Structure prediction request, 117 residues.
Amino acid sequence: MPAPLNLCNHKDMKALYSPRTVTDAHLIRGYLQSHGIETLVRGEFLAGGIGELPAGMCKVWVADDANFERADRLLREFFRGDTARRLAANQWRCAACGETLEGQFTDCWQCGAARPG
Ligand SMILES: [Zn+2]
Prediction:
């Protein structure tokens, strides 16, 4: 019996994150990609594309070591919910109809009332 390959052991890259599921892995990958950080997801084929991953078998890797610290910081922000809070902080509520609107709207799309100053 040959020893099992350690699929996550790559000497040239740092593993950033060990996701619980494949969906999780791709969520993180997409998030970092939106910030210009290229990542690789390894080991996902072991789970057949769905469900829980064997512990430690799949990791998200930062392709360029120079981005690792930034990626790490972004990931921490992501999990603390900073991004979600920042987006939520820009929301406003229409005084006329009570509709909740995203920060980029200056008028209520529901009733046309202007955003209160
Ligand atoms: Zn309104």
Observations:
- Residues 94, 96-97, 99, 108, 110-111, 113 surround zinc ion (CB under 6 Å).
